[in-house]
């Protein structure tokens, strides 16, 4: 009886140890978020696109992208249009085209492979709210959803 109890105890402690080794490391997502913002500031599509899951969805904050993008084609078409508008409106000839500075950044781990990231953007004219859902896929944190909203009034 004692042997059975010891075997069960060893098996259980091994399962717990394996589960704990897969806990999220805050630094990993923090680094991904910083790299994501940098790629967006630079409007570097080749660096930017891999941050997203293949089936990522987005609610953009403004026209012409009023509906959720929920296919790879609509996702890429919407973002490439955003890149083009930002590049044109920045009047800069080289990156960075923006200098996004997330404020009140909060990362909430919903489980070991899913995190909710929220922050504000404020450029003095427009106040923006951002909600991002990140999921660890094949060991890499990727964005599965963004909900963005902008306000001109305060």
From TrEMBL:
Residue ranges of domain SnoaL-like in the record: 31-149
Signal peptide (UniProt feature, chain positions): 1-17
This protein's UniProt keywords: Signal
Domain of life: Bacteria
SUPFAM superfamilies xrefs: NTF2-like (SSF54427)
InterPro entries per record: NTF2-like_dom_sf (IPR032710), SnoaL-like (IPR037401)
Classification via Pfam families: SnoaL_3
Name of protein: SnoaL-like domain-containing protein
